[in-house]
Specification:
By secondary structure, this protein is of the alpha+beta class. It is 38% helix and 21% strand. It is built from ten helices and ten strands.
Amino acid sequence: MAVSRFHRGLILLAVLVSELGASRPAVNQELSNLFNEFWTLDVNRMQPGVDYSISVQGKAGFVTQGSNVAPDRAPQPLFSNVNETKLSLIPTFSHFVKLLDNYEMSTGVAERVSPAEVRENNLFLDAVLQTAVMTRAHRYLVLKGKSNSDLRQFKSQLYLIWFRLYHRERNAGMDSSGFEHVFVGETKTGSEIIGFHNWLQFYLQEKHGHLDYKGYKARVQDIPDQDDHVLNLQFSWHGLVKPVGSAFVGASPEFEMALFTVVFLMNTDRSTSVLVNIDQCQMELVVIRHGRSLGTAYPRLLSSNSRHLPRPQPQH
């Protein structure tokens, strides 16, 4: 009887272990390969220590969602310098910066898009579509039957995904878009930061005194350094605190748009999480739909500096 119970226990343990393993997503190798191609093609990416410098400083403390008090574990700004002259000479970056002041910060306040702002959106997309990164993304999506080979129709698809206005707050006007949420950031009911996953917007808001970096968020074995291209971090913005945010650092806007557009179009679920390895990082790419447009999209760093790779066994 005791042996039988022991065997049943072993079987139950095996089932539990199997279920735990099944619940852990596997690395999407096809998208990892594709996104590493994007990474290689991203010639407009800013280089750490050359085009910008960051100081990650201390590990941020725990802050509950909705609290606007956070201990400051980073007395200095995250960015000590960014080569703005170089940014101004790169078409996608220069057009991108012009879009950052086109939005109302708070949800619930209807956006009013002027003809000049529509023109700025189109000029930005035109510049993005001329890059090798988005050209590769377009080719992949055409191959998968998710996009039309006609460039004008693909541009219209990108506009719908990223720039179409929609209701984020009930009983409000058209108050949000994928671009605003992901790249610019928003506040909700005046009490919390939502979105805001772009490094350049972070730098500019920090530079103008609107944002205060509080420290990085990471496990003990994954302390970030100044060369990391993805960070999990904590910050305050206009007096509100984001307990945990995340962003690529130094990446071009076309790289981020290509990445998240592919994830968006390759899945139809409202919420999608894809595990990928890009350069030396392992991360989840999270995409949430808002109908035919993007609700949010961000990277969640799991490990950096190739710590997710198997360690070589010592030689005997």
